[in-house]
Amino acid sequence: MNRSNPIVSIIISIVIPAIILSKFSDAAHLGVLPGFLIALAFPIGQSLYELIVQKKVGFIAIVGLVSIFCTGIIGVLELPTEWLAYKEAAVPLLIGAAVVISLKTPYPLIKKLFYNKELMDVERIDEKLKENGSEEKFEKVLRNSTYMVGASFLLSAVLNFTLTKIIVTSPAGTEAFNQELGKLTALSYPVIALPSTIVMVIALWYLFKQMTKLTGLPFEELMSEKFRNKE
């Protein structure tokens, strides 16, 4: 099964819900509660498609789906608005904590995501690291990269909490709440995702830069044969 087109995913999970919440959840159109539920149905549907059809049952995908359901509960039960800010901060904090804690397990997440045979020529890299006596240095690089990735999620948590507290101030279950949630959804990508992504890109640049230094291999030769054949 082919992976979802990222542009389509953004449209379904961010653009459409933001438009529904901000423009069509008033009494003259869908109504407050129906508009809220219809808007949530799009990212929920997208998440379920990835989990069930594409078999993406990873930790981050599951946490994302739980986050959407929590937003729905807050809106439907008209819980205090502050809960939304805490929920928005808790999700990236939970993911970041899992990334760092994975260092204490036999399967660090940084290796699972980036240092795998699908992406990298692991056998050749391991051989070069052993030849150069750089295995311990490489483990330190992996730890540093993991902390940097964890920091990107911490940054996301702070930005999530701050943006939510600033934008969403109306009681849940009101038209104003839906409009503010739509605005939050629309701004979440440029204001939250972009800075966090920059930090993560820096972490990956550091990882690959150090790998070329420790192995003596150019970047192209670090990649798996499948990716080299695409060039």
Helix content: over 70%
- Measured between the Cα atoms of the first and last residue, the distance is 23 Å
What string, H for helix and E for strand, traces the elements in order?
HHHHHHHHHH
What general outline do the C-alpha atoms trace? elongated
Number of helices: 10
Can you give the mean pLDDT?
A: 79
Give the number of DSSP strands.
0
Radius of gyration of CA atoms, rounded to a whole number: 21 Å
Can you walk me through this structure?
This protein is mainly alpha-helical. Helices cover 77% and strands 0% of the residues. It has helices at 6-23, 32-53, 59-76, 82-101, 109-113, 122-131, 135-167, 175-215, 219-222, 225-230. α1 packs antiparallel against α8 (175-215), α4 packs antiparallel against α7 (135-167) and α7 (135-167) runs antiparallel to α8 (175-215). The protein is elongated and about 70 Å long. The two termini are 23 Å apart. The model has no long low-confidence stretch (mean pLDDT 79).
Task: Kindly summarize this structure in a few lines.
The protein is mostly helical. The protein has helices spanning 6-23, 32-53, 59-76, 82-101, 109-113, 122-131, 135-167, 175-215, 219-222, 225-230.
